[in-house]
Design brief:
Layout: E1 4-11, H1 16-29, E2 33-36, E3 40-41, E4 48-56, E5 69-74, H2 77-83, E6 87-96, H3 103-106, H4 116-122, E7 126-130, H5 132-139, H6 145-154, H7 161-171, H8 177-189
Parallel strand pairs: 1-5, 5-6, 6-7
Antiparallel strand pairs: 1-4, 2-4, 3-4
């Protein structure tokens, strides 16, 4: 199997690392060779972060170059725009519609860019935008955005719901398990 590339991008504190670990566990359980990168960027709360998940018969490097990502999962709109050039032609960008103001916007030095969904779509990108924050809150906790987005990502794989649930059970502390499963299911079920 040809190596597939997934990027998970967001802002520090949003749970990108848990999402990449969950996905890596699931892919390993299916027999793939998997490389999950360490978090690159400012992983402190508020800084831009990216992790790479590469899988296939044999994967030699954990890094994805520009134009190579089959799927980008973005936890925030500006991060989607920041990393879109890494998407291959015909790739899919799954994004949370939430906006998290970076420091230059907070300080008033810059304005948050407008119409990012329209600008990304104009690039010819297959965009799957969902209000993951609202679904996470519906599940019971705003911090479950990561599992909502993993539920959304699951629509692009042929893995069973039980296989995803098993990976969630291996990745999430027991006291948060039901909340995270609910968030996953809401993300999976949300119509376009």
């Amino acid at each position: 199997m040809q190596t597939k590339n997934i990027m998970i991008v967001g802002v520090g504190g949003q749970g990108t690392l848990l999402a990449s670990k969950l996905l890596g566990r699931l892919l390993l359980s299916k027999g793939y060779d998997v490389k999950v990168s360490e978090v690159h960027g400012m992983s402190q709360r508020g800084g831009s972060v990216v992790t790479y998940v590469r899988y296939g018969d044999k994967v030699y490097s954990p890094v994805v170059d520009k134009g190579e990502a089959d799927v980008i999962v973005s936890f925030e709109m500006l991060e989607a725009a920041r990393w879109v050039e890494y998407l291959r032609t015909g790739g899919t960008l799954i994004t949370n519609t939430q906006q998290v103001n970076p420091m230059p916007v907070i300080t008033g030095a810059m304005a948050y860019p407008e119409n990012l969904q329209e600008k990304i779509t104009a690039l010819g990108v297959q965009l799957d935008a969902v209000d993951a924050l609202a679904l996470a809150e519906q599940a019971g906790n705003a911090k479950a955005v990561n599992l909502v987005l993993m539920g959304r990502l699951s629509r692009y794989f042929d893995f069973t719901e039980q296989e995803w649930m098993d990976a969630i059970e291996q990745s999430v502390p027991p006291k948060f398990l039901e909340l995270n499963k609910q968030a996953f299911l809401l993300g999976q079920a949300k119509a376009n």
